[in-house]
């Protein structure tokens, strides 16, 4: 038994469900790419339009990433707080509630039950049940930390990020009659999640894992964590302005959004730098390489996707032509994968062996799966980017019309389908591997 | 670096960004009323927005560039297709699409009228002239060029000036007849009237026009030439 606290076990069902939803998300994604590449017959479009499958693809993403974060939180908090979870029962109740809402919502989309707002389609009253689930979660985690009376920066950052996340979701609840105001607050949810709250969570989880696997002094990690959090929030909050260029808001957002979001790569660079630094100056020998590989891969793709691909089209002079094109799609895919998918996968590879009582496990399948997923996603990003540049030039610069541009982009979506299938192989391999981890062979165990 | 300094970087960095962001949010709320013509948000426009959500249009189309990228942007669709064009596509999508299909949906006639009102309102949002490809269709200039009519004349009609003013035998009686306005007032004075009517005639009842710099110039030139 490798667990220090038995209540850490509640994390496991979260992980399993998250992993299964991940597979489903990628399957639906391949269908979406196919819809761009070939003609779907009218009768099928009438029954199952692109809008429905797209809502399923994106909601699955949000659902499984959040379930992953919740599971990781339940795994990590007992060790940080040095006490059992306040109520394992509430943790299970919350899981049942959220998964139930998720299943009903996804089925509802197929029958046209939707709020009709991209990424936040979950309709009333299910959206309020999401809030109830989040409140149970925050209460349970908050009580655990409170009862322990042990303050750490890592824990504070994680909990702060989770509260921030839940708080921002509230801006999704009202109906806004003005379309511009509607989108203004939509970004309070979406942007302040992925470039605010989720970054706090990611920074905290990464810092915690690095402390655990490298045994570098906590004080050093927490000091840099403060700086990272400060930079994330300094650039990320006002950086929301890069979504306000063309929605009917005042012109000064071009300056505010441009300047602050141009700085957004800095905290991510700092994350890469200190991950490297800690790994090089580790005090423990390598206990298995895979978690290290994932930590480094995550930092690099986080920077490439969120930092570099985001920077490419964040300045208003460029964004005027690329806004709302496949360039955004390219950025979205690699950024979510690098920043949040690999973060979850890294944590799963850290936690699941412990939940299964394995001191060391055979890493070959997992390593292969990581490279398969990452290479497929990197190439897919390039294919989306080529499509995006074509669209930008043909539709926006030359003004030749939407479908003229789409016709030129079809080939690249066929490529995306192939890469999507490759990604799926990697994802299935990851999931199968995580659910059937085997002990390492004696010969491969490092001292 | 000490932990104390690191903590200060966190606190100060966060606060600066937060204060700036919230301050500008308050100001944006103030300005967005004008930029989006919020006074024109009639119950029908709002009903149209609900129709837009009901059929999940936004998970194929972008609007203001946000949403899904599977189908054309709807911000200025009213300029591209006009009311009847929009209705035609929604009623019979299969007649307007080729290799990428739009679903047939049970949209009622009332819903369709509301949707058009919403999209018309949306097309009038002042959003820094985005998207670039639709700017050539701006009603004030694009159509005028296409018809060979002066852009100022089109603006005069589209901004509703005929409701009060008469040119030749067309128009209302509330304001002065403008048939020969160019021989009474010069370009600069006309421009002043358009920006703030009371600066020229303090007793007047004409509301100030809210025109962009270019539109103002076009309209003033058109009127100054009516001699």
Précis, in short:
The complex is a heterodimer of chains A (447) and B (227). Chain A is mainly α and 447 residues long.
What does this structure look like?
The complex is a heterodimer of chains A (447) and B (227). In chain A, 76% of the residues lie in helices and 0% in strands. Chain A is mainly alpha-helical. Chain A has a single domain (6-435), classed as Cytochrome c oxidase-like, subunit I domain (Cytochrome C Oxidase, Chain A, Up-down Bundle), CATH 1.20.210.10. In chain A, helix 7 (179-214) packs parallel to helix 13 and helix 8 (218-239) runs antiparallel to helix 9 (252-262). The two termini of chain A are 20 Å apart. Chain B is mainly alpha-helical and 227 residues long. Chain B folds into two domains: 40-126, Cytochrome c-like domain (Cytochrome Bc1 Complex, Chain D, domain 2, Orthogonal Bundle), CATH 1.10.760.10; 141-227, Orthogonal Bundle (Cytochrome Bc1 Complex, Chain D, domain 2), CATH 1.10.760.10. Helix content of chain B is 53%, strand content 4%. Chain B has a two-stranded antiparallel ribbon with strand order 1-2. Classes of the chains: A mainly alpha (447), B mainly alpha (227). At the A-B interface, helix 2, helix 3, helix 7, helix 8 and helix 9 of A face helix 1, helix 2, strand 1 and strand 2 of B.
